[in-house]
Amino acid sequence: MIYIGIDPGPEMSAYCEISNWGTKEIKIMAKEKINNDEMLLNCDDWGVLVNNNRDYKIAIEMFQSMGMPVGAEVFDTCVWIGRFIERLNMVPELIYRREEKINLCGSMKAKDANIRRALIDRFGVPGTKKNPGVTYGFAKDTWAALAVAVTLMDKEKLNEPK
After folding, report:
1. CA of 39: how far to CAs of 10, 35, 117, in Å?
2. What is the pTM of this model?
3. Mean pLDDT of 99-120
4. CA–CA distances in Å: residue 52 to residues 25, 45, 84, 90, 159
5. Edge-to-edge strands of the sheet including 12-19?
6. What sign for the dihedral angle of Cα 74, 75, 80, 82?
7. How far is CA 14 from the centre of its chain?
8. Helix pair angle (97-105, 112-123), 10° resolution
9. CA–CA dist 158, 147 (Å, integer)
10. Cα–chain center distance at 42
11. Kind plus residue range of the DSSP H or E element containing 104
12. Which of 6, 27, 67, 115 could anchor a disulfide with 60, C-beta 3.0 to 4.6 Å?
């Protein structure tokens, strides 16, 4: 199965593709932070893959109201989420940040650093240029996209028939 996680932003968004084909080891196939117009083109391609192949699942991190005022960036990002969904030509799984926190850290109090640490515990240290690890080259937004993809995968595994 291939899982694609998208961390949307107002101008640029990140994605991460992971796979667990026939093994318990998860492979990171691709990751990138790109401008949203490029992400729309990726959504066109992924939409065809997901709609024609049951081996692909896609998720987008979604906003959740916490009762606090938000700025224009949040609303701009919401518009982009809608555009991504429209281009996918299907409704992807919407993953909320609280789901990532509970899934990866077991606590709603988790911060970005805790989520990153949980992913490093799961995949290994990023390493160095001379000795790269599986997550070498990940940055803030690509870590978030990985968290979305891993949470989607874990949710799917929980819902599998035993």
Report:
1. 12, 6, 27
2. 0.91
3. 96
4. 25, 11, 18, 11, 22
5. 27-35, 12-19, 2-7, 56-62, 93-96
6. positive
7. 8
8. 50
9. 16
10. 14
11. helix 97-105
12. 6
